[in-house]
């Protein structure tokens, strides 16, 4: 690999301060690999123990992978939005110059998988950015922060072909934007400007478009979108019909391939659909958890199916207008708060937002409002997304 210092006169990427120390990094990596190999060879018992513990994880990952759509007809995204993505891939992404697409939409609407499936059908090699964990290397290797690593990724992909690549067309995908840019938006915008000048491949950013995720508007303000001619495609929430068809497809797959672990019945599908809010990812996970077979010893399985279906508004009602069972001088809630929370584990943020909108209607005294507001504020801080600006300010992200 050519060191960045020798490339300084070839392009403006060097202006961003990136310096590759690949020779020493490769050497250290090789030593680390040998150390790991020797440890495994001399500690067979530990390796077997680790392998046994990882089998269940592999089973779960295999279940999720089996649900993955492999062709456009299996996508839950509408045909109209598929056509918009295909049109961008066939027109803008094949011009031979850098183009940027902002693929937005609600969480779990199938944005990323739709892009990957359609890109593969049109012979694109999708190269995805995975945010690395910052770590301190040895003293003779330069430390790279997230900004340097992200720029390095763009330089490598746009300049060098993979020896394993089967396609001449490449597509860069960034779903997890480095946290450093949430506070340094100007630095992010400068990287985008440099890429538009020097990049050679289409670049796609996948962002959640919701009121609780305002970072998209700070990272991609209207003036930057206009300046760099960034294209945007918005994917709406999945419709009930598309969700039903998706569950029918995966139920056949799960029952056929994982029948010893899962039994997806029509009653489970109906229950999951009644609580669905257009989030494909959440719906699939709820279906898997609700369909897990209970062991024969009769022990309870928290992920198993429940005796009743609890809708979102019904659950809100049980919180703000709870029923009580009185026994002398003592009382308890008819519905256990822990059980109510368990119903909405995958939709906790939406449940919390609905609760904030409706709790004031049942308050009679200002003291009650004060107490509830304090509890909700604390819950909001605990459950808030790690990308939120107030957490970044206190260095908790």
From TrEMBL:
Name assigned to this protein: RAD17_1 protein
Single GO cellular component term: nucleus
Localisation per UniProt entry: Nucleus
Family statement drawn from the similarity comment of this UniProt entry: Belongs to the rad17/RAD24 family.
This protein's encoding gene: RAD17_1
Keywords: ATP-binding, Cell cycle, DNA damage, Nucleotide-binding, Nucleus
GO biological process terms on file: DNA damage checkpoint signaling; DNA repair; mitotic DNA replication checkpoint signaling
Origin superkingdom: Eukaryota
Gene Ontology molecular functions: ATP binding; chromatin binding; DNA clamp loader activity
Gene3D superfamilies hit by this protein: P-loop containing nucleotide triphosphate hydrolases
